[in-house]
Amino acid sequence: MTFPRLITGACSSVYSHTSRISRRIIPTVVIYWKHKYSTSSSPTADVKSPVNLENIFSDENKERVKKSLLTIQPVRTIEHIVKPKHKPLKISHDAAVIIPLCVVNDEPSVLFTLRSSSLRKHRGEVSFPGGRKDDSDPDLIYTAVRETWEELGIPKEKIDVWGALSPAPNKYGTSFTTPVLAYCGHIDISKLVPNEDEVEVVFTRTIESIIKKENIASTQWRYGRGYTMPVFIGGQHRIWGLTAIFLHQALIVLAPGLYKNKVRHNP
């Protein structure tokens, strides 16, 4: 695999602390796999939308995204996990991840990691950098930025946080993970310093390839009340589970007119 370039952004968070295992929470049994989306495969935006691949990371789109983040709805909620008449579940911990927007070879892209095969849980799965909130972390944005530094060596001053999306529960409803949308500038993967105990591979996908109709599918689960989740294919690694949910949420606010997919549940 050839790895593409690093720079820029700004963030108000500060962090240190020792490295922790990134807690990615992904369901375990695929029930349904079929394309159930309406999508635009064109790299040009809808006529009603000012967003295109040339200005997707612009200051204007950043401000629009920050406003949109205040209204975005979660793809999956605790109601999808807990069946009627079940007792409320005890939340054991909170976690956060960064969705790293970046430019690779002059193309707007998203960065992902493949979890180390030596980890006890979720080994070899595609994820975003992140992990559990430490007691000393002031908030979950701090957690996400700190974990990104610990996993990939991207310093806080190069992480321009745009805001947080809706948190999503794991399949048992016992923990929530908050995705944080952030721009990390031009990335050269060969210059990153991944933590080998946690990260096996770092890779990127261009936004243009992610939003293509033929690269989008869905998975339906019958756990709890049942729910449907997006799946992104077409690259070397399939993007699914919570990572796909967070990517879907991010694209809805980041690229209206370019990304038109709607998750349709079929019980």
TrEMBL record:
<dbReference type="InterPro" id="IPR015797">
    <property type="entry name" value="NUDIX_hydrolase-like_dom_sf"/>
</dbReference>
<keyword id="KW-0464">Manganese</keyword>
<keyword id="KW-0479">Metal-binding</keyword>
<dbReference type="InterPro" id="IPR000086">
    <property type="entry name" value="NUDIX_hydrolase_dom"/>
</dbReference>
<dbReference type="Pfam" id="PF00293">
    <property type="entry name" value="NUDIX"/>
</dbReference>
<keyword id="KW-0460">Magnesium</keyword>
<dbReference type="GO" id="GO:0010945">
    <property type="term" value="F:coenzyme A diphosphatase activity"/>
</dbReference>
<feature type="domain" description="Nudix hydrolase">
    <location>
        <begin position="91"/>
        <end position="228"/>
    </location>
</feature>
<comment type="similarity">
    <text>Belongs to the Nudix hydrolase family. PCD1 subfamily.</text>
</comment>
<keyword id="KW-0378">Hydrolase</keyword>
<dbReference type="GO" id="GO:0009132">
    <property type="term" value="P:nucleoside diphosphate metabolic process"/>
</dbReference>
<protein>
    <recommendedName>
        <fullName>Nudix hydrolase domain-containing protein</fullName>
    </recommendedName>
</protein>
<dbReference type="GO" id="GO:0000287">
    <property type="term" value="F:magnesium ion binding"/>
</dbReference>
<dbReference type="GO" id="GO:0030145">
    <property type="term" value="F:manganese ion binding"/>
</dbReference>
<dbReference type="InterPro" id="IPR045121">
    <property type="entry name" value="CoAse"/>
</dbReference>
<dbReference type="InterPro" id="IPR000059">
    <property type="entry name" value="NUDIX_hydrolase_NudL_CS"/>
</dbReference>
